[in-house]
Amino acid sequence: xxxxxxxxxxxxxxxxxxxxxxxxxxxxxxxxxxxxxxxxxxxxxxxxxxxxxxxxxxxxxxxxxxxxxxxxxxxxxxxxxxxxxxxxxxxxxxxxxxxxxxxxxxxxxxxxxxxxxxxxxxxxxxxxxxxxxxxxxxxxxx
Length: 142
Prior knowledge:
142 residues; three-stranded antiparallel beta sheet; 11% strand
C-alpha cells in the first residue's frame, strides 16, 4: 500500500482553521459546523460510509452535540468512539462496532478506519502510526 505523509494532509486544514477562527470559540464552532456538514453530505450521498473528527477533550461534549444535529439532518448516526466523533451511515455502524473490538493501532483497526472514511485502498497506510505516533500531531495541535 502506498505510503502518504498524513501530516501534510492535516497541516493545510489546521492552518485554514487557525486563519479563519483566530482562537474564537464561536468561530471554531461555526467552522466545524460547516466542515462537518460537508462531510455529512458526502456520507449521505454515498461517497464514503463515515467521517471521523478529533477535538480537544474540553470541546468533545459540544462537538458531539453538533455532530448529532448534523447527522440527524441527513438520517445518519453520530457516535463518540474513544473520544473521536464519528458520523456514519446507519447500515455501516456494524463495521464501527467491529473496529471497536480490534486492538487499537493494529493493522486491521487502521484498515477498517480508512475504509469507513472512504480512503482508497491504494492510499491506506496501516503502519503510519509506527513511524509518527498515532494521533500525536492532532493531539498537539487540536
